[in-house]
Amino acid sequence: MNVIFVGSALFVRTFLVFISFGEALSPNRGEQIKNCLNENFDFKRTNWNDTIERDAPSNLKVETTWSSSHVSRYDLTIVTQLSFDRMPALYNQCSTYPGPMAAAVYLPLLQLDDQLHILNGESGDLNPENKERVRKEVERVGRIFQEIDNRNDMCQLDLMFLWEAFDSKQASLLYPVNSLRNYARMQVRTNLLSAIDVDMMISSSVGRAFEHPATLKELTSAVEDRQAVVLPAFEPQRQGPYGRMVADESCKASKENLAIKFKQKSVLQFKLKVFPRGHTPTNYTKWFQCTHPYKVRYQRMYEPWYIGNVKTAPFHDVKFRGYGLNKIAHVASLNYFNFTFLVHPDFWIIHRPHEDTAVRKVVAREASDVNKFGVKLPKNALYYKVTQLFGDAKRGMIRGNFNITLDTSMVRCYNTLTWLPPIPSSQGFPVDPLIFI
Ligand SMILES: *[C@@H]1O[C@H](CO)[C@@H](O)[C@H](O)[C@H]1NC(C)=O
Ligand SMILES: *[C@@H]1O[C@H](CO)[C@@H](O)[C@H](O)[C@H]1NC(C)=O
Ligand SMILES: *[C@@H]1O[C@H](CO)[C@@H](O)[C@H](O)[C@H]1NC(C)=O
Ligand SMILES: *[C@@H]1O[C@H](CO)[C@@H](O)[C@H](O)[C@H]1NC(C)=O
User: Fold this and answer.
1) Which of 29, 230, 340, 415 has its CA 20 to 30 A from that of 10?
2) Residue 151 neighbours by CB distance under 10 Å
3) 138/20 Cα distance (integer angstroms)
4) What parts of the sequence cross the membrane (predicted)?
5) Is 12 exposed, middle or buried (0-12, 13-18, 19+ CB in 10 A)?
């Protein structure tokens, strides 16, 4: 007994030495990503009209990265993005998945042009108050990162902190959702990934399944075949603290137990009341009956969350900022790139209710003005912009020349950091226009 114990302890020691040796040889990946993305950074405040009317690129600066001190437990990384005030949501999401997570946290900074030091052109810098703001937030986020990293029962988190300066309060609504998704993905060290919004809790069945090597094998071969493995999404019927309690319970529940909650309508198909098209193609009736994966057809406005492969999953188009249609356009691109949709029989995610973001309220109001009252929006309205972007994307998909716009700095980093997996170069195929009607 003793001998075996000593033997295995020695083995573990050797193993650990080997790992730390390996890490010492390759400099910290987070640091390399940060330095690369910042290489051509030039301080510039983001402006509403330039962004909306001229697709001016975002001006993101990577301030810090933190890398998990743990080895990735599973070969699936959850990729997410959030604004600085949503760190509690990241903590909660991370507590529902004991595998690797890659996140980008974002701080928008308002810097009006009455500040002396930027009067001569735009070659300025953050003002002292904003510098202090960054310093404080980095410290705060770093503490939360450390708390997560100290634990063995939570996710293995790689985290990137970015900020962007704006010249108006309105412009600061332009949350760069897709740039952040793409940047967060750069940190992924596994073969499988799933970009999931930070307010979705992950069913404990996901982590449990990865304890079985067969699951990994199955999933890996599914996504190798350009299949998007769909995670059905739910939400509690009620908002507020009660809804959050239901979400926390549901992600730990068995599928049978979830079925009871679903029957009782305490959990619903995600956004069933306001946007049934988003998830109806998943077929929740069928899902509760199934024990095996099943295929579903793409339909317009479908926007499931899914597991993909780093080698083939498309990136997100960075022209989408703020709120609206970004995930719908992304899922439409999967269809264009000839992915099929395969619903996983045991995995799901559930929304943890929270306050609406300011930008969602703006876009929702504009959308209802247009769709209910026939209001003609000004060209620089955000809802006008995102519908136009989605229209361009659809026309490109129908003609067969659809492209995804990426940040030039990110593309440069993919070319210089050779350990990053290459950006997927997928062949798309013209889609039937009827699919969008
Ligand atoms: C932004 O664009 C709108 C509509 O094109 C225009 O009316 C407005 O004056 C512009 N604002 C600025 C600050 O240039
Ligand atoms: C959903 O699945 C059920 C059960 O398999 C099936 O009867 C039904 O036709 C499906 N619904 C749609 C819209 O495909
Ligand atoms: C698209 O994928 C299907 C299988 O999922 C395959 O049969 C078909 O040949 C593919 N189409 C093209 C144009 O590659
Ligand atoms: C995609 O890029 C090609 C070549 O750069 C261009 O001809 C085409 O118009 C682009 N498609 C769209 C939808 O922007």
Assistant:
1) 29
2) 14
3) 26
4) none
5) exposed
Residue 422 structure tokens: 């290459």
- Over residues 154-206, the pLDDT tens digits come to 999 999 999 999 999 999 999 999 999 999 999 999 999 999 999 999 999 99
Distance CA 428, CA 62 (A): 32
Of ligand 3's atoms, which has the minimum distance to the CA of residue 226? 5
Distances (CA, A) of 352 to 5, 29, 64, 201, 436: 45, 32, 28, 7, 31
Q: How many residues does the chain have?
A: 437
Q: Count CB-CB contacts under 10 A for residue 50.
A: 15
Classify 277 as helix, strand or coil: helix
Phi, psi of 294 (to 5 degrees): -140, 155
Nearest CA to ligand 3 atom 14: 338
- Among candidates 410, 313, 417, which has minimal Cα distance to 29? 417
Cβ–Cβ under 8 Å, residues 203 and 305: no
Instruction: Locate the domains of the chain by residue range.
Output: 3-436
Structure tokens at 303: 């926007």
Of residues 127, 116, 177, 129, the one with CA closest to residue 326: 177
Residues with CB under 6 A from ligand 3: 338, 340, 429
What is the rounded distance in angstroms from the CA atom of residue 179 to the CA atom of residue 172?
A: 15
Q: How many CA atoms lie within 13 A of 127 on its CB side?
A: 16
- Taking the C-alpha atoms of residue 241 and residue 307, their distance in angstroms, rounded to an integer, is 29
